[in-house]
Amino acid sequence: MKPSLPHVLTFCLAVSTQAYSRHSGKASKTCAGLQSKFGDSIVQTAGAEYLSTVSNAWSLFNTLQRPTCVMYPRNANHVQVAMREIYRDKVRYAVQAGSHSGMTGWNNVDGGVLFAFSHMKDVKYNSTSDIITLQPGIRWGEAIAAVESYGVAPMGGRLTDVGTGLLLGGGLSYLAPEYGFSADLFKELDVVLVDGDLVTATATNRYSDLFRALKGGANRFGIVTRYAVEAVHTGTKEDKLWFGGLILYPEEAAEALVNATAKFVRSVTEPKAALFTCLFYAKTGGVLTDTHLVTLFYRGPSLPLDIYGDFLSIPFTSQSLGPASYSDAVNALGPGADRGFGQNFGGSAIAGPTSRYLDALNHFKNYSSIFQDELDHTLMAFTPILQSQINAGRTRGRNAIDPPDGPYAAVVFQDQYKQGVARISQELQDGRKLLFKQIPPSPGLPLYVGESDATQNAFATYSGYEFLKRTYAKYDPTRFNVQYADGPPGL
Ligand SMILES: Cc1cc2nc3c(=O)[nH]c(=O)nc-3n(C[C@H](O)[C@H](O)[C@H](O)COP(=O)(O)OP(=O)(O)OC[C@H]3O[C@@H](n4cnc5c(N)ncnc54)[C@H](O)[C@@H]3O)c2cc1C
Which one, out of 1, 15, 82, 306, has a CA that is 20 to 30 A from the CA of 357? Predict the structure, then answer.
């Protein structure tokens, strides 16, 4: 018999409460100490703000943990002091910025200390240095809107509700073909190391290895309290330097879209051309239905037909193409702010012949059809990583991902479970594992840590993996972070 939704939730909350009481003992002392130092608005153990933080993560699976306290830092010093005590007391911890991690446990913690950056949301543009400074609590929609009147933007993501944790995974945006992964535009990072030391890392100072490791090393290398990034001159809202938008397609367009995407990845070399292809499956009235979409943006007055002609010639359901500002582009897919659904990501990376992309489509469609009753929807999306993006990262001192030469598509699979369902069946878990085997990354290609499953071990697919391991051993010699915080495996 299938359990009803309230039963599933009650069961999971019970499990979560048991885990909480196991871990909360040591953390209670640490939290009490921090509370007496900073007061109970900065360190909270209960109350409306505490509850809203712990229940507001994007994935329902990350709303079930109960930290012993939530620390709401106002500055880097608060993080330093707290980290020193967490390190001394050997307490579990987690960090939450935009809360969009699809990995359970990466942005919340049971019975430990959760850092929530909701009071550190400043963004500033310095026109002399041409640098934008971001505090970690800002979301992309807010950051882009705040500096748009100066005609600049920070490189972030493609949906407005997502936060700065994206940068630590690398970051894919419509600007990527021209400028690299979003992290490639880092200029200076303030980082609180596991033992509470605060350092400023740049490409050329004594922390240059840490600086590079943070371009893809996710939450493993410290807590970033300030990002200074190169400003991209994207124009103001009125300038509308792009042309493009969203096209929606009917079910039968899937194969043609995959063909067109594979060809785009192989043949397009123009850094002004961005594309995102998304195939979306849901079950309505017992039948698997699919809607597909692309967003395409070209930095220029129109969409060149030699680049986008295939997409424009596939019969579509609706389109909203036109002149666009950068903020229009980032708003094209909406905020991505839905809450209340359990989420899981998986990833792949594909290069080469169209047949590999079509294989992926067939396996994904088959998976979606088998498990759709348990799911609200599934989607598979392709982001082209052009050679120009790889080169841009190298020119700026290399990131930790450092893909090999040659264009490829970063692939994400997303499962969104039914609203309120907090556990997934064993069959579905097995199905996900099989899917990852059926659609492996092409040899040598990196997975994107922000959009893959922890079991896929994205770090091990990076060209910079050995570098990442060495750098981790240097900055966290007691391996505190990997023992006391959830995050990517492999270090
Ligand atoms: C709807 C949606 C759209 C997305 N679109 C894109 C996209 O266009 N491009 C793209 O590249 N990715 C995209 N992603 C994936 C995204 O990169 C990851 O989900 C990313 O982890 C989100 O960052 P966050 O700050 O919102 O999430 P969080 O869950 O708050 O943070 C993510 C991870 O980073 C850690 N972290 C956050 N801040 C810090 C810090 N200051 N110091 C140390 N560790 C920290 C957290 O502990 C967590 O492990 C999308 C995800 C979703 C759900």
Answer: 306
